[in-house]
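Before relying on records like the one below, remember that each one covers exactly one chain. Contacts with other chains, cofactors or solvent are not represented anywhere in the record.
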Amino acid sequence: MSMDLTSILKDWPYEPGQITVRVIEGDDGEPKIQVRLDLGLLQMEVAGRPDGQRPYGFESLLEYYETGLDDFLADSPEGENFQLSADDCRLLREESVQYYHRYISLLVLGDADGVVRDTSRNLRVLDLCRQYAERDEDRQVLEQFRSYITMMRTRALASQMVAANEAKAALLVIDEGIEEIRRLHEEAGHEDGGRSTEIQMLQGMRDELVMKLPASQKTELRRRLQEAIEQENYELAAI
């Protein structure tokens, strides 16, 4: 069997400026995600760790460390002495990049369930490192991505609601995501957090969704918004 990829790449041309993704059947009969790159392609598993490995017999390093934490907490409920070394955090970051590549690919493929799964998983990595990393820099380095991952997860959750014909639930999910991202920016001291790219993207999705609502629901939303503004109840206005 030839190891030359020329014929594969020739039949699947690279498109600059676009994320070109497809799902193929692997030699093992299981689906694989492929991403076309300028100099080749990237292939990932659809579920589990994207590279198909099982470190220490676990689905991923995250599960390995989480299990270690659970075992530690069983003996020491406070968990004060549980720490992730610099190497532990580096390995978790490298693994998270694999899941990032996959959830971007799944977004292009329209697999909202997969995006929710992988973004939720990467948020767990941020939580674990923030709480248990031995070094302060390892606790903080991933926090810059929390707003982005939250936005991606919110988009996917809202897409799930839209697919289930639950437009109002989708609006609520989006508004909760916007509020969470705004809170993250405020905690970080970002004065322009309300105009962040993540919030603008979610607001655009919300506006498009409202435009597609039946006229009766639009009228109801406008009425609730006006009442909420008059009462200064901005939480109600959001939904």
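The chain is about 60% helix and 10% strand.
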